[in-house]
Design a protein that fits this description.
With 190 residues, the protein is of the alpha+beta class. The chain is built from two helices and ten strands, in the order H-E-E-E-E-E-E-E-E-E-E-H. Bound molecules: dinuclear copper ion.
Length: 190
């Protein structure tokens, strides 16, 4: 039913019909593009292997395994790596004050007991979410000695803004002098 077959139609109406049809095509093209984007991104994500996922049982976190209280803090592993284990809970970190050496790679392993928490250490790139049931891990190096603040940066409830820890970066030799194999270091005042 093209306009050319209907000479009775005034010129302005024919123009309007043509314009409407054009815009209908544009709208359909936009919808088609959006659907195509959904399909392509969906397939792309489905085809990607998941990043490393490590789970932990929240119910037994305090009772056994890696995250029992006596195992939290900083350790010098038998292979010489520096490891920090911590947990987050409403509204504190355990331990509240963490010791790391200056200039050595430090691996953090952390999880949460109750809600999603997270932390960032001062102006460093140490930054992760802590999700109940999952172990977050990353390795970083602290280039300069000193104390850094470590706030929780995921909204975790009414006490969120008061949830802070501290990180003390000790000179490398001081750290190595104090670290004993099998012991857990922290700087929580006793
Ligand atoms: Cu923990 Cu916000």
């Amino acid at each position: 039913m093209s306009e050319t077959l209907r000479p009775a139609m005034p010129g302005s109406e024919a123009t309007a019909v043509a314009a409407e049809r054009r815009w209908a095509l544009v709208v359909m093209a936009i919808i088609g593009l959006l659907v195509l984007m959904m399909i392509v991104t969906g397939l792309h994500w489905a085809a990607m292997p998941p990043s490393r996922v490590e789970t932990v049982d929240v119910r037994t976190l305090h009772l056994r395994g890696e995250f029992v209280e006596s195992n939290l803090g900083t350790s010098l592993e038998p292979d010489g790596r520096v490891m920090v284990r911590l947990i987050a809970q409403q509204y504190s970190f355990e331990p509240q004050c963490i010791v790391v050496p200056e200039g050595l790679p430090v691996t953090f392993r952390g999880t949460a007991t109750d809600a999603i928490h997270g932390f960032i250490v001062g102006r460093t790139n140490a930054n992760t979410m802590l999700v109940p049931g999952f172990v977050a891990t990353f390795t970083t190096t602290f280039p300069s000695a000193g104390e850094q603040l470590m706030p929780c940066h995921e909204y975790c409830g009414t006490g969120h803004e008061a949830m802070w820890g501290r990180v003390q970066v000790w000179p490398r030799q001081q750290f190595l002098d104090r670290a004993r194999p099998g012991e857990r270091l922290n700087c929580v005042a006793r």
